[in-house]
């Protein structure tokens, strides 16, 4: 399983699944969420509305993940996850880690070989980039090791790609990736 860093726009990634940093409403927003819905078209929102009506009447809780179609995007699925809002007073890193773990579990269940993540919670939800990068990489490394040891047949997952929207975000992930696992 490879971890790859790229600087770019997640909506342009040709992967099986892209992860959306959504909010609990699942009904869209700004940032990466806005970009995904804009470029993916109305089919994604339609499925999100159906999920609200069926399984998530109170919204998708922070740390959980659920998939929809990717509409017109060059991916097969969008996995929506809700990051925690950063708080200087309360450690919510378990919720941020859970976003990565749960999204990978959904990707694995779908049989995705390639998955792209944005830097969840580092925009509107204000999580400091260096810390978010460390949590993201530690969690993905641990989860993929577990997936390959727990599943006898092996997971289809071959690549986890982090798509970073700025040079500073890319540099933070590069530093965290260079740290010993
Ligand atoms: N591709 C990759 N990364 C992007 C893109 C893109 N097209 N656009 C932004 N980013 P944010 P959050 C980066 O705010 O902090 C939404 O309104 C961005 O630079 O999208 O989890 C939701 O509806 C930042 O580093 O998500 C929620 O209400 C990272 O993606 C709320 O924002 C995440 O920024 C979620 O906040």
TrEMBL record:
Top-rank taxon, per record: Bacteria
Pfam families documented for this protein: Macro (PF01661)
SMART domains from the UniProt entry: A1pp
InterPro entries with a match to the protein in the record: Macro_dom, Macro_dom-like
Record-annotated membrane-spanning stretches: none
Domain Macro positions: 1-181
Name recorded for this polypeptide: O-acetyl-ADP-ribose deacetylase
Lineage: Bacteria, Bacillati, Actinomycetota, Actinomycetes, Streptosporangiales
């Amino acid at each position: 399983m490879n971890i790859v860093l790229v600087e770019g726009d997640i909506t342009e990634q040709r992967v099986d699944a892209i992860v959306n940093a959504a909010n609990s409403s699942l009904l869209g927003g700004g940032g990466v969420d806005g970009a995904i819905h804009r470029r993916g078209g109305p089919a994604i929102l339609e499925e999100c509305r159906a999920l609200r009506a069926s399984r998530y009447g109170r919204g998708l809780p922070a740390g959980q993940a659920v998939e929809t179609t990717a509409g017109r995007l060059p991916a097969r699925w969008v996995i929506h996850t809700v990051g925690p809002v950063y708080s200087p007073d309360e450690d919510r890193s378990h919720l941020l880690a859970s976003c990565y773990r749960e999204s990978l579990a959904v990707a694995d269940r779908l049989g995705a070989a390639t998955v792209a993540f944005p830097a969840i919670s580092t925009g509107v939800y204000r999580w400091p980039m260096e810390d978010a990068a460390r949590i993201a990489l530690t969690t993905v490394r641990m989860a993929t090791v577990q997936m390959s040891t727990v599943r006898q047949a092996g997971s289809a997952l071959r690549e986890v790609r982090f798509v970073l929207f700025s040079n500073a975000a890319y540099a933070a992930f590069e530093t965290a990736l260079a740290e010993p696992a």
